[in-house]
Task: structure prediction
Amino acid sequence: MKAVIAENLIKTYDKGKVRALDGLSLEVEEGTVLGVLGPNGAGKTTTVRILATLLTPDSGRASVAGLDVMKDPGKVREVIGLSGQYAAVDETLTGWDNLTIFSRLYHLSSSASRKRASELLEQFSLTDAAKRSIKTYSGGMRRRLDLAASLIVRPKILFLDEPTAGLDPRGRIEMWEVIEGLVKDGTTLLLTTQYLEEADQLADEIAVIDHGKVIARGTSDQLKKEVGGERLEIVAEAEDLKQVTAIVEKISTRKVLVEEGSRQVSAPVTTGSKALIDAVRSLDELGIHPLDIALKRPSLDDVFIALTGHVAEEKKPEDQEGKPKRGWRK
Amino acid sequence: MIKYAISDSLIITKRQLLQLIRIPELLIFSTIQPVMFVLLFRYVFGGSISTGIPGVDYVQILMPGIFVQTVAFTLGGTAVGLAEDMQKGLIDRFRSLPISRSAVVFGRTLGDGALNIVVLVVMGLAGYAVGWRPSSGLFSVLLGFAFLLFFGFAMAWVGVLIGLSVRSARVANVAVFITIFPLTFLSNAFVPTTEMPKALQYFAEWNPVSTMVAGCRQLFGLENIFGVTANSWPSQNPLEMSLFYMVLIMAIFIPLSVRKYINTASK
Result:
């Protein structure tokens, strides 16, 4: 059963000048985690906002838990939880205030609201900070409270828009643990991220999006395989680079990438460890001592570059001013 | 449905009043400002402005003016508050909840309206301290305050539209200032309109702030003086005219604001 379906969503801004979504389609199987991966401005937030009934697409269809998000937005809101890119809690109030007020807005009675608020504070290790103003919270605590607020009625389907953007490494890991815990309880989760390892870590399936379209989908392993298995990487002294390149060209059947700056030569290989042995042997015959030599499994970075043909920081001409810059954060 | 529409709104109002408890400075400063106005006008201008009526002190004329000015500025709090909520993504959160679509804006205007009760009590006491003595009966005085509260509530709806239309709280602040400041000064609130250029006199006469001020002066026991430029209908019937304005403001701005809220994409 599909918990979330988006079909051919199109959304433009600025009277059609900016195409935020350009025929985006995706599905999330019930009880699984879909990671929507893409750089800034790829359409991740727009997708989430449409699915969470905050935004109406220009065309296309979307359903959540079998309910049409355009025709039945009220019912959709009853079954979803949303935690946005910016911590949408009231900073002037305490954690306790926020959770009891949001509980009341979900129409829990006032005693049930108090009970649920203490449960959630406990679950997210915020009990000690419950009566403190959110202003005193760390970034990680704020995100946890935001997430807690989206879980008040134990939603079947949860949307998390860049749940760890802006957190320090410790905050991120804490957040991952919290999210993993939720997923274990069977919540269907659609998560957007621009952190490659985050998608790798949390998602069952990944949809890579760029320019408002899904350009590839599959498990992390499938996507990596698509790029062509392993990659041979050799770092050598500058004067040896030419010879090293020649060696790698003999071993790999694909395009060899030479990076003068980092003095690295790399190429996809299909023969596994044999490629590494061949390389070492050839280098040794020529008396070249590489600084580093390794056989690497492709990262999702490689996947993205291979799929889109453009590297991380590239800026697209159709980017409008005021829109966030494209680029990966790693 | 109706039941939830009301209870959801009240919870939003409660959230807003809770903010005042968590940050008491907010309440303190929002009452200090009007009190400051009372003192400044009373003692800086009070000496040089004559009412022209024997036995009627400037402070009697001034207080209704300051009351109206203060409640007119209610829309500032509303606009800035909503713009902030939107900037911070709180409106997105509210919109993703299964609550009545008008609850957030109704709750906000109710909260801002309720805050005026505190402000008016403090100002009334400050006025009393500097010599303001309404000469009508208790009932009329209370009716005057009820009028003021209602006017504040109506103005808050204008604030909702401003708050939801601007890009940031800072813009809201400026937008509010340039709408309200001229309105309160091009009126009979502080000086006689008879000294204004003719065109401004007409504006001042029909200005809702003037009709409110004239109406309150009446309810607080003053003859309708100080700024009657002609025997026109609004200056003869300030209470009826004010009531009409308030209903008109709400009839226009409530539907517009609710629609704006529903269609707004947070920035």
